[in-house]
Design brief:
The chain is mainly α. Helix content is 76%, strand content 0%. The two termini are 40 Å apart. The C terminus is likely disordered.
């Protein structure tokens, strides 16, 4: 067997495996959207790859529920997720910039602390977090779901690794010579350079915040302030949606639309951002 033939055979096998994995990821989501257009008897009859005509009916069931307002929960999750994403990305880059550019006492200690926090699961501190939010009077508000985004160790770690590979310190010195302030240098010089990495962090931050169920369930008690994952949980346990499975699938389909849209819009930055952050000169 020639080298060229062997190479083509290996490439074919790799393509087949990749297509199989892609189908494993795509088909369940496709069936989810298809079931959102079907009735309960149709769903119980088996899997279908063709849409049905019950989308308007399922939409009406969602809008008529008295136990949970899915659309209000959608808005709550949007407010929290977008605010969380903006705060996470900005302050992670700001912190990483300070660690990378400035020399100060305990610099290595600070970065070591960030790395240590990356390895500690957030659930370990959940009791202390709840008590602290209670002392602040922030229970049943959005503040505990947004304000802690100022300090996300994983985002700081990623931003630090990314800046190590793409930041040109000569540009910083040039900005200082031209009289630009330190924040001006960060905003006008560093951030444009770090845009691919920032978009990569934004995707992860948005998806994590949008899908977060544990923290809102711990903090929020008022159903009017419920996030979308909480609303989906109420849907699962609700008698109305147990009778109308199509409406349940429609609710799930609506819940994943923003994640898919954000990923499609920003996915081109993922490979470049992660590759740049993985290479050091």
């Amino acid at each position: 067997m020639s080298y060229k033939l062997l190479t083509n055979l290996v490439r074919l096998i790799v393509y087949i495996i990749m297509i199989f994995i892609a189908l494993l990821c795509i088909v369940p989501i496709y069936i989810l959207f298809i079931n959102a257009t079907r009735s309960t008897p149709q769903i119980n009859s088996g899997i279908s790859f063709l849409p049905s005509t019950f989308l308007a009916f399922n939409w009406g069931v969602l809008g008529s529920s008295g136990s949970v307002n899915l659309f209000r929960s959608f808005g709550n999750s949007a407010i929290i997720a977008f605010s969380n994403t903006i705060i996470t990305v900005y302050f992670a880059v700001l912190t990483a910039y300070a660690i990378e550019v400035y020399n100060f006492k305990l610099k290595k200690v600070v970065y070591s602390l960030v790395m240590l926090l990356v390895m500690i699961p957030g659930q370990v501190a959940v009791i202390g977090f709840y008590m602290q939010m209670s002392a602040f009077g922030w229970l049943n508000t959005f503040y505990p779901l947004i304000i802690p985004a100022i300090a996300v160790p994983t985002s700081v770690f990623f931003a630090k690794q990314y800046l190590e590979s793409c930041l040109v310190k000569e540009l910083i010195h040039a900005g200082r010579i031209d009289g630009c302030s330190e924040l001006g240098i960060m905003h006008k010089i560093m951030m444009p350079i770090a845009i691919p990495g920032m978009f990569t962090m934004a995707i992860f931050a948005f998806v994590g915040s949008w899908n977060n169920f544990f923290t809102p369930f711990l903090i929020i008690t008022d159903q009017k302030k419920a996030t979308l994952p909480m609303a989906v949980q109420i849907i699962v346990n609700g008698n109305t949606y147990n009778r109308e499975i199509g409406a349940f699938y429609l609710g799930l389909a609506i819940s994943i639309v923003p994640v898919v849209v954000v990923y499609i819009c920003l996915s081109k930055f993922i490979v470049g951002g992660m590759a740049m952050g993985a290479v050091k000169e």
